[in-house]
Amino acid sequence: MRKSKNTSRFVFTEANIKSLSTPASGREWHYDTKQPGLALMKTSTGGIGFYFYKWHNGKPVRMLLGKSPALTVIQARDAIRKHLGRIADGGDPYADRQARRQEPTLQQLFAHWELYAAAHKKALSARHDSLNYANHLAKWGTRRLSTIKKTDVQALHSEIGAKSGPYAANRVLALLAAMFNRSEDLGYSGQNPACKIAKFKEQSRDRFLQPNELEAFFAALNAESPLFRDFFLIALLTGARKSNVMTMRWEQLNLDSCLWRIPETKGGTVVVVPLVAPAIAILKARQAEANGCEWVFPGHRRGDPMGNPGKVWKRICEAAGIKDLRIHDLRRSLGSWMAGQNTSLLIVGKALGHRTPQATAIYARLSLDPVRQAVDSAAAAMLAAGKLTNLLTIEAEPVIKVTRDSNGYE
């Protein structure tokens, strides 16, 4: 590396540096006589930068430390001493800089994560990851992984919690931690900045349709088109998740046996849902008008399932005067009404497809008959409370006959 003719050596002080003349063109280099390895470059525009300058392994190394006045002389000397210390320990500052330049960015890490998620996660979960990245992490996309510190993640977590709530903040934190856990695939061996950060406490939601809300709710449903009316009734009468009802196919249904086989749920397992008489009546009516469509609830575009009915749900709740009720609360409503009928919690879990390590073996031994009875009883109670009498008069032929008493199924 050739030195410029316009060079000088002096003790760097803030006053001495301030008194330097500005070159008419090009740049001038100056060297600190107090701290070997510290150089200064001043350009014709008046800009000043501090540099680390040293011959190392037979070649000159010149690396920018920072610009004045953001970086002071004292700070520049401290940085030089750290570089010299690394060299004394056998390190190579130049190689370290090259490695940082080649280090993956957060955007590159997320692109790798998307490939992993596509192969190992459900499509809905992968879409949620994409939304969380776009909404909260994309602004860090060009940052090298080593520049993302734990303090940055803590601040972001708090910011999201304040703006979007604890649940959203915790999901973004979990996504970032999972992404960094895969960073070794890209050659990055640094620490995970999202690790060991305390999550916000999440309040379990206990909202469900109350008895005094059902009549207005069913009245608002009846005012909608048959497509959306039937969709929300099936969601309520089966307790299935919104995504499963949206993608319900005729091939999954056995209306003669009153069964719906969901090939994959949130837990990644197959769930068989017993269909009560009102649900069978709704589905048979829809099947008569299916015209060969594979979806029970088709979307606007031919060949697609129903899209997110969020706007319709909002309209229904407003018409019924119901506040703070989500579509997922229909699932909770069935479970709550079943529990209100003194149904065993194990049967409630079986009906809703819940899985816990402790109860899985017991669930496997439960037949669908008591589950069907419990769902039937709860569904009848909800429909009666909502005065939806047209569905109360329908009876399905059960696969296995059971004895009834005055209170329903034994």
Explain what this protein looks like in three dimensions:
The structure is a single chain. With 410 residues, this protein is an alpha+beta fold. The protein has three domains: 7-102, Integrase, DNA-binding domain (Double Stranded RNA Binding Domain); 106-186, DNA polymerase, domain 1 (Orthogonal Bundle); 211-409, hpI Integrase, Chain A (Orthogonal Bundle), CATH 1.10.443. Helix content is 47%, strand content 12%.
SSE inventory with pairings:
Blueprint: E1 7-10, H1 14-18, E2 27-32, E3 38-43, E4 48-56, E5 59-67, H2 73-88, H3 93-102, H4 106-120, H5 123-137, H6 150-164, H7 166-181, H8 211-222, H9 226-238, H10 242-246, E6 253-254, E7 259-262, E8 271-274, H11 277-287, H12 310-320, H13 328-340, H14 345-352, H15 360-365, H16 368-385, H17 389-392, E9 404-405, E10 408-409
Helix pairs in contact: 4-5, 5-7, 6-7, 8-12, 9-11, 9-13, 13-14, 13-16, 14-16
- Unreliable sequence segments: 356-367, 397-410
CATH class of the largest domain: Mainly Alpha
The number of helical segments is: 17
Shape: elongated
CATH superfamily of the largest domain: Intergrase catalytic core
State the end-to-end distance: 93 Å
* Spatial strand sequence of the major β-sheet: 1-2-3-4-5
How many structural domains in the coordinates?
3
What name does CATH use for the topology of the largest domain? hpI Integrase, Chain A
Measured as a percent range, the helix fraction is 40-55%
Mean pLDDT: 82
Under the CATH scheme, which architecture of the largest domain would be assigned? Answer: Orthogonal Bundle
Strand count:
10
The profile of the biggest β sheet is: 5 strands, mixed
Structure class: alpha+beta
